[in-house]
Write a structure and sequence with these properties.
This protein is of the alpha+beta class and about 160 residues long. The chain has seven helices and four strands, in the order ααββαααββαα. The chain has two domains: about 10-90, no CATH class; about 90-155, no CATH class. Helix content is about 45%, strand content about 15%.
Length: about 160
Amino acid sequence: MEIFNPFAKSLKTLVLVSGMLVSSLSFATVTTSTDENGVILAGYDTVSYFTKDAPVQGYSGISSVYNGAIYHFASEENRDLFKANPSKYAPQYGGFCAFGTTISKKIPINPTQYEVIDGKLFVQSSAKAFELFQPEKAKKIITANKNWDVIKDTPADQL
């Protein structure tokens, strides 16, 4: 005789959903540079890097999720532009320091140290990293791209 337990299915669902949530949060911390709340670029509006002279702080009430990271936007228009083509606006290397990626490191960034090169957003950890990235920039991007393929799934503290 089978015992009926009305909570068994709910418990299984809860465990499954919890596992998926933990998995997605782990993904965000490995392949994207986010804060403890899962926010990338310290909450700056990624579209503003392309449309303004300086990055603009976004609002938590206007947001979107891409590759496990939460993006904040200064306007609904910017959010909609992002949602239409997120890979166009997302920072390179998961939002980790572009110079750091050239040396196979995942270094958190300063969102005010950035450059848009050939329509792609490259953020840096500091003014010094920005300066070090400048000479032979094209070669550094090729190196960083190759390194990112190797390190993107490795936690920063294991590099």
